[in-house]
């Protein structure tokens, strides 16, 4: 057995059945080993697409995604995907070929120092220097990717190591258990909970990463505490949950943004006070004490001092804080805010109104539908107007905000969950960023639905130019877009264009009922903006609204 | 403000880059540095003086997370290590 076959065996030992990638010279031995090994490889049409498909696979299942690329440009094309996974704490393992060991450092053909490049965009990275280390390195890579706060791991393997003879051995890496929370911290947190009159639960993506959704639901059932989520936390709390206020932050709900400014205690579960959540940090939740719960100790006190900071597994700590609270008045107040500030879908004229379109999609889509977003206005409209039963159903590039994420992430999700409906909601700007992945959809005949919301603009930038740059629309006008339906047709993907409201319902039905892939191209006005908006440098309760 | 750190880690070819990158990215400027490798090239001890207006705990927490870093301690010029982070 050579090193490449050993790599594939090591992947199989980790339970890997699906990988995404693109072959090339320095990774050819691994591709030879993949040829008849039983691990399914999906050829993406760009390495960035492969990385984002691996992210979509991981996020839609809660497992680890795997992508493979060659050296040099293959490896550099993975970098944006790795950074995306790092910012959103997604466990993926990226395997890259490297030029042969004697050539490293000679500026050989397709040589790049990917280990050096990986330092700022991975949780950890390895270069394998001896064939006998392959087993332990692959095992460590998976352990690092999924343990603690998950993240991307890169394994760079020189071609001579892939070709070297290796003895096959079953190698695993021990899983380190996180420390249990200190009793004194639990006691202090329970004291704060008992004293609070206006507590608010602030839920981030960390709850799902800890597989602690059930513990969170129990916590809410016992405390009946009002709650809100970050973009990554969407789907963790059922929309009908008692006193759930929706998403907080720049494009969050008015109820969440007002409530957080009134709260006297924030219970922060797996969230990190991101600037898109807090607005002006000094004025965020100024009346609140903070209980901060996170597996990553480095997040505690990073941006906001916590009165009680507990670095622990949320699965362990949440049950210890679940206690009945005497907060009836506050509950009723927040419920009243939720009712007062609900979304409105009345909109004049015949033009299609994107929030209503997405609300209709939310109402019509089957249970367990996965929505993979791109980045921009449509991403915020999805967050606001589609209801999710599970955080694994909402794939949105939250931390890095990577345009081009939606279609390849949908590819990964569709491969992972072949029996569920998967919809990529994209904008005309984002769609063109990874449009080559239509070829991947065609190749595997994946039934991915694409809802392309087209305002012939880079909409979110245009919105900011309108509001904050005196309407100087610098390089955001895309009236020269291609014919998207014809473009999709070139990849055997049927579709249609709609332009008025009355076309929406039947078109969504056709899209959802199509057996294969489908593109629904929706023309909307370039004047449509995302509201409300917390402007830069403002507190969350200083939201701008549509005039 | 100047802080003196001792970082202990398993040796790897890129270890120094990893540690220095985190220091730069998190807003700490290296003023002085000494690296010692043990006799069997397994363990590295870095003594680093860093300057920043930011709280040093923000840096020690990030260094502690690095895979292979086994201890981060903060010292002053006159005292023995007073904070063992790992």
TrEMBL record, chain A:
<protein>
    <recommendedName>
        <fullName>Acetolactate synthase</fullName>
        <ecNumber>2.2.1.6</ecNumber>
    </recommendedName>
</protein>
<dbReference type="InterPro" id="IPR029035">
    <property type="entry name" value="DHS-like_NAD/FAD-binding_dom"/>
</dbReference>
<dbReference type="Pfam" id="PF02775">
    <property type="entry name" value="TPP_enzyme_C"/>
</dbReference>
<keyword id="KW-0786">Thiamine pyrophosphate</keyword>
<dbReference type="InterPro" id="IPR000399">
    <property type="entry name" value="TPP-bd_CS"/>
</dbReference>
<feature type="domain" description="Thiamine pyrophosphate enzyme TPP-binding">
    <location>
        <begin position="374"/>
        <end position="522"/>
    </location>
</feature>
<keyword id="KW-0028">Amino-acid biosynthesis</keyword>
<keyword id="KW-0100">Branched-chain amino acid biosynthesis</keyword>
<keyword id="KW-0479">Metal-binding</keyword>
<keyword id="KW-0460">Magnesium</keyword>
<keyword id="KW-0808">Transferase</keyword>
<comment type="similarity">
    <text>Belongs to the TPP enzyme family.</text>
</comment>
<dbReference type="InterPro" id="IPR012000">
    <property type="entry name" value="Thiamin_PyroP_enz_cen_dom"/>
</dbReference>
<dbReference type="InterPro" id="IPR011766">
    <property type="entry name" value="TPP_enzyme_TPP-bd"/>
</dbReference>
<dbReference type="InterPro" id="IPR029061">
    <property type="entry name" value="THDP-binding"/>
</dbReference>
<dbReference type="Pfam" id="PF00205">
    <property type="entry name" value="TPP_enzyme_M"/>
</dbReference>
<dbReference type="InterPro" id="IPR012846">
    <property type="entry name" value="Acetolactate_synth_lsu"/>
</dbReference>
<dbReference type="InterPro" id="IPR045229">
    <property type="entry name" value="TPP_enz"/>
</dbReference>
<dbReference type="GO" id="GO:0003984">
    <property type="term" value="F:acetolactate synthase activity"/>
</dbReference>
<dbReference type="Pfam" id="PF02776">
    <property type="entry name" value="TPP_enzyme_N"/>
</dbReference>
<dbReference type="InterPro" id="IPR039368">
    <property type="entry name" value="AHAS_TPP"/>
</dbReference>
<feature type="domain" description="Thiamine pyrophosphate enzyme central">
    <location>
        <begin position="186"/>
        <end position="321"/>
    </location>
</feature>
UniProtKB/TrEMBL annotation, chain B:
<dbReference type="GO" id="GO:0003984">
    <property type="term" value="F:acetolactate synthase activity"/>
</dbReference>
<dbReference type="InterPro" id="IPR045865">
    <property type="entry name" value="ACT-like_dom_sf"/>
</dbReference>
<feature type="domain" description="ACT">
    <location>
        <begin position="4"/>
        <end position="77"/>
    </location>
</feature>
<dbReference type="InterPro" id="IPR002912">
    <property type="entry name" value="ACT_dom"/>
</dbReference>
<keyword id="KW-0808">Transferase</keyword>
<protein>
    <submittedName>
        <fullName>Acetolactate synthase 2 small subunit</fullName>
        <ecNumber>2.2.1.6</ecNumber>
    </submittedName>
</protein>
<dbReference type="Pfam" id="PF13710">
    <property type="entry name" value="ACT_5"/>
</dbReference>
């Amino acid at each position: 057995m050579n090193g490449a076959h050993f790599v594939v065996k090591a992947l199989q030992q980790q339970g890997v059945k699906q990988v995404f990638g693109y072959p090339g010279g320095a990774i050819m031995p691994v591709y030879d080993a993949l040829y008849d090994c039983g691990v399914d490889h999906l050829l993406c049409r760009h390495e960035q697409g492969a990385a984002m498909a691996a992210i979509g696979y991981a996020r839609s299942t809660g497992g680890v995604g795997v992508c493979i690329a060659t050296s040099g440009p293959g490896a550099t094309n993975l970098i944006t995907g790795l950074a995306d996974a790092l910012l959103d704490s997604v466990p993926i393992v990226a395997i890259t070929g490297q030029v042969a060991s004697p050539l490293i450092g000679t500026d050989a053909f397709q040589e790049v120092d990917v280990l050096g490049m990986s330092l700022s965009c991975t949780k950890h990275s390895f270069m394998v220097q001896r064939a006998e280390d392959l087993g332990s390195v692959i095992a460590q890579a998976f352990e690092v990717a999924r343990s603690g706060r998950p993240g991307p791991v890169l394994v760079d393997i020189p071609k001579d190591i892939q070709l070297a003879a290796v003895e096959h051995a079953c190698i695993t890496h021990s899983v380190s258990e996180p420390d249990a929370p200190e009793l004194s911290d639990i006691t202090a947190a329970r004291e704060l909970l008992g004293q609070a009159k206006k507590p608010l639960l602030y839920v981030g993506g960390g709850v799902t990463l800890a597989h602690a959704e059930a513990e969170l639901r129990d916590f809410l059932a016992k405390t009946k505490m009002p709650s809100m989520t970050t973009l990554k936390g969407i789907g963790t709390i059922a929309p009908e949950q008692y006193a759930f206020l929706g998403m907080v932050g720049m494009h969050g709900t008015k109820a969440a943004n007002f409530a957080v400014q009134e709260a006297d205690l924030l219970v922060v579960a797996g969230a990190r006070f991101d600037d898109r959540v807090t607005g002006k940090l000094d004025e965020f939740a100024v009346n609140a004490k903070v209980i901060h719960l996170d597996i990553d100790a480095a997040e505690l006190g990073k941006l906001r001092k916590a009165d009680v900071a507990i670095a622990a597994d949320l699965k362990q700590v949440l049950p210890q804080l679940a206690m009945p609270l005497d907060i009836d008045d506050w509950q009723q107040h927040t419920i009243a805010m939720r009712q007062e500030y609900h979304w409105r879908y009345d909109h004049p004229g015949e033009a299609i109104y994107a929030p209503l379109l997405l609300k209709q999609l939310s109402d019509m889509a089957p249970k367990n539908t996965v929505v993979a977003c791109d980045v921009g206005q449509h991403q915020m409209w999805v967050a606001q107007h589609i209801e999710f039963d599970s955080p694994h159903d909402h794939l949105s590039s939250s931390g890095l905000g990577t345009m081009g994420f939606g279609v390849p992430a949908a590819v990964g999700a569709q491969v992972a969950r072949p029996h569920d409906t998967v919809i990529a909601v994209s904008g005309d700007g984002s769609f063109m960023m990874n449009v080559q992945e239509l070829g991947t959809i065609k190749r595997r005949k994946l039934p991915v639905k694409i809802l392309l919301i087209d305002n012939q603009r880079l909409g979110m930038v245009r919105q900011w130019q309108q509001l904050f740059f005196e309407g100087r629309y610098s390089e955001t006008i895309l009236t020269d877009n291609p014919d998207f339906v014809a473009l999709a047709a070139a990849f055997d993907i049927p579709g249609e264009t709609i332009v008025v409201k009355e076309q929406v319902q039947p078109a969504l039905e056709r899209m959802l009922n199509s057996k294969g892939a489908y593109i629904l191209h929706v023309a909307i006005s370039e004047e449509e903006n995302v509201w409300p908006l917390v402007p830069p440098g403002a507190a969350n309760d200083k939201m701008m609204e549509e005039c | 403000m100047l802080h003196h750190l001792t970082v202990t880690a398993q040796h790897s070819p890129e270890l120094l880059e990893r540690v220095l990158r985190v220091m730069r990215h998190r807003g700490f400027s290296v003023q002085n540095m000494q690296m010692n490798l043990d006799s069997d090239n397994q363990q590295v001890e870095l003594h680093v003086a860093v300057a920043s207006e930011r709280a040093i705990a923000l840096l020690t927490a990030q260094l502690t997370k690095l895979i292979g870093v086994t201890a981060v301690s903060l010292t002053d010029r006159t005292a023995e290590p007073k904070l063992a982070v790992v």
